[in-house]
């Protein structure tokens, strides 16, 4: 489908229509963040004092305050869970930390408290930011609309008061206030927020329009077809919230067995204390054995076996432009076995570029002369296609003549006078308008060829005679084809393309990058349906997108990744990870890195399990001295920690990139 060149007034045009106004929760507005920060500061002050041999009275109270500030919330949560007859890892971690302090390992317990409190703060912040972005999405729809009255008058009303059947007037540069159909007028509407299409779409009588989209240079009279609560933009909000609430609970591997492990450890500790005592053993000896058992069997090493590899992988990915929001996400990335990609702004750059210059034979123009004429005529315009033409002319260093008598006709194109010649630039079908002369017929054929190849065709006329056709398209990212190949190798199946763009443009781009499954013309709910269809088939889907229209699918997917530079606020907050530098090739690399991290987790769990098993058996069968038990427990913690730190090295990313590029 051709798009036409229409002037857009600079003062009212949004630089990017799918950017949601930010209403972000401040980091320290959350109590979880304040408590975690306090515990971290206290720990960092106490640690060097202890290591430098300062008296215990200088660092002991600091550690105690770190325990209190970082531990009271998880302790309270654990006690509440205990009241519901559930023993969770919150309480277990607090008990382990207090147990470490009880045997003189105050620093180890404080470190465990700080790690746990920081993890909870990050989770709370991520939840709050996602809620902010969902609320901010509602700002896309205007607060008021101009409703036309039966007597020909008009009134300004809140958009939520619009009812089905009302007629509203949308002036040039305004946002549309309700879903509806055009009754009268012609314009172009930027509806990237809903469909992700990179270029404005021509709208005329009978066409559907959506709330929150941006009108171009023409006035539209629109009949309201849906209530505000049922508009597409409102449904996007609802879908994101629903997907976030119903998404399968995410847990680290070790957390999946935390309940049984916690209960088993508590029961075993009580048994180790009570059984010898019942058989006549001394109270002190039984208590010491039970305390030793609790220390060596505590899950500290197991938890640290899981976290360091994942956290190091997160840090390594961050250095290379990939923001992974949590350890859970890093673990889940390695589980994906299907990928769904958005088109505009993901596989493509999201910016239209001139791809073809086709001067007509007999016009006497070269390619550069055709481009210079079109750019001179378009110079006063703010339309995205006009900017593409001007950028192409500037790139070639072309000198542009001054334009006079510039006018813009909604749905048709622009006209201007250049060096005494009247130029028209716009949609071929509108400018030719049924003419059957040989030159017009040839221009129509060229335009059809360009559109068949996925381009937007733009006709240039001089004094009413076609002189050439330009082809404009959204440029493919240089690493798009390689990324598709790499993801195919990692998951065992070719990614699918989910886009709101037209089928012809989508099919052409998919063929370029090697994608065979294409679903085009999709609204946000259609993308969610496609993702859930894959997950119903047992697949764990990774969705990669950038726009507001991708956010519901990002939320519904097993894992969602957003493109950082062009991404809307809602997409960035909803996604589990963000490609900060828009380097698409880092996606297969971070998936491969996740798989390496999960391998390290398995190694560490084996190491931790062996240490725990040996120490527990030693304590039960013989007499394990408490200092030796603590040494063995802390030694296993150090070993698994150092093993996980290997993922911080540059070599880890290099290997992951090589694995992801196979």
What can you tell me about this protein's structure?
- It is a single chain.
- This protein is an alpha+beta fold.
- The protein is built from 23 helices and 22 strands.
- The strands form 4 sheets. A 7-stranded mixed β-sheet has the order 10-22-21-20-11-18-19, sandwiched between helices. A 6-stranded antiparallel β-sheet has the order 2-1-3-9-4-7, with no helix packed on it. A 6-stranded antiparallel β-sheet has the order 12-17-16-15-14-13.
- A hairpin with a 3-residue loop joins strand 13 and strand 14.
- Helix 9 (300-319) packs across helix 10 (327-333).
- The model is unreliable at 1-22 (pLDDT under 50).
Mean of pLDDT: 79
Number of helices: 23
What is the general shape?
elongated
Share of helix among residues? Answer: 40-55%
Strand order of the largest sheet: 10-22-21-20-11-18-19
Share of β-strand residues: 15-25%
Distance between the termini: 37 Å
Q: Catalogue the unreliable spans.
A: 1-22
Q: Can you summarize the main beta sheet?
A: 7 strands, mixed
C-alpha Rg (nearest Å): 32 Å
What's the total number of strands?
Answer: 22
């Amino acid at each position: 489908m051709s798009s036409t060149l229409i002037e857009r007034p600079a003062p009212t045009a949004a630089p990017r229509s799918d950017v949601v106004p930010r209403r972000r929760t401040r980091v320290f507005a959350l109590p979880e963040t304040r408590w975690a920060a306090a515990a971290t500061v206290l720990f960092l002050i106490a640690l060097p004092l202890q290591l430098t041999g300062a008296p215990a009275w200088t660092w002991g109270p600091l550690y105690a305050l770190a325990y209190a500030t970082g531990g009271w919330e998880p302790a309270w949560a654990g006690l509440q869970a205990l009241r519901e007859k559930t023993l969770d890892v919150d309480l277990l971690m607090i008990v382990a930390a207090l147990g470490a302090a009880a045997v003189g390992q105050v620093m180890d317990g404080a470190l465990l408290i700080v790690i746990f409190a920081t993890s909870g703060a990050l989770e709370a912040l991520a939840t709050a930011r996602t809620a902010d972005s969902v609320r901010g999405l509602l700002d896309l729809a205007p607060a008021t609309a101009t409703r036309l009255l039966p007597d020909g008058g008009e009134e300004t009303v809140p958009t939520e008061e619009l009812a089905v059947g009302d007629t509203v007037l949308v002036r040039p540069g305004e946002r549309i206030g309700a879903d509806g159909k055009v009754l009268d007028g012609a314009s172009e509407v930027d509806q990237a927020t809903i469909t992700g299409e990179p270029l404005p779409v021509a709208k005329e009588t009978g066409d559907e329009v959506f709330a929150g989209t941006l009108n171009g240079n023409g006035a539209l009279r629109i009949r309201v077809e849906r209530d505000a609560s049922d508009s597409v933009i409102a449904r996007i909000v609802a879908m994101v919230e629903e997907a976030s609430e119903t998404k399968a609970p995410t847990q680290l591997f070790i957390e999946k067995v935390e309940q049984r492990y916690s209960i088993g450890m508590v029961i075993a500790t009580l048994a180790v204390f009570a059984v010898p005592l019942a058989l006549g053993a001394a109270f002190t000896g039984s208590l010491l054995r039970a305390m030793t058992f609790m220390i060596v069997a505590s899950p500290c090493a197991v938890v640290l076996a899981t976290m360091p590899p994942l956290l190091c992988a997160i840090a390594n990915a961050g250095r290379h432009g990939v923001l992974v929001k949590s350890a859970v996400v890093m673990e889940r990335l390695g589980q994906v076995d299907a990928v769904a990609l958005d088109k505009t702004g993901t596989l493509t750059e999201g910016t239209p570029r001139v791809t073809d210059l086709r001067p007509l034979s007999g016009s006497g123009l070269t390619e550069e002369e055709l481009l210079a004429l079109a750019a001179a005529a378009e110079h006063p315009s703010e339309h995205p296609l006009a900017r593409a033409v001007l950028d192409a002319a500037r790139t070639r260093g072309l000198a542009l003549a001054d334009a006079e008598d510039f006018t813009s006709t909604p749905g048709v194109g622009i006209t201007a006078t250049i060096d005494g010649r009247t130029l028209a630039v716009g949609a071929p079908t509108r400018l030719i308008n049924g003419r059957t002369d040989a030159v017009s017929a040839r221009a129509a054929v060229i335009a059809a060829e360009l559109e068949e190849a996925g381009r937007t065709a733009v006709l240039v006329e001089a004094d009413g005679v076609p002189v050439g056709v330009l082809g404009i398209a959204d440029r493919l990212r240089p690493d798009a084809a390689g990324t598709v190949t790499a993801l195919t190798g990692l998951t065992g199946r070719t990614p699918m393309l989910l886009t709101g763009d037209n089928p012809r443009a989508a099919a052409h781009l998919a063929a370029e990058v090697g994608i065979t499954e294409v679903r085009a013309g999709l609204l946000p709910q259609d993308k969610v349906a496609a993702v859930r269809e894959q997950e119903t088939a047992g697949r764990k889907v990774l969705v990669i997108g950038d726009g507001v229209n991708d956010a519901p699918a990002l939320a519904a997917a097993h894992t969602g990744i957003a493109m950082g530079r062009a991404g809307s606020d809602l997409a960035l907050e909803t996604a589990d990870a963000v490609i900060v530098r828009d380097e698409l090739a880092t996606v297969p690399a971070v998936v491969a890195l996740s798989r390496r991290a999960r391998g390290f987790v398995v190694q560490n769990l084996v190491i931790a399990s062996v240490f725990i098993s040996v120490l527990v058996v030693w304590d039960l069968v013989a007499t394990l001295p408490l200092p030796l038990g603590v040494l063995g427990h802390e030694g296993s913690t150090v070993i698994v920690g150092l093993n996980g730190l290997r993922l911080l090295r540059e070599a880890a990313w290099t290997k992951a990139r090589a694995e992801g590029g196979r």
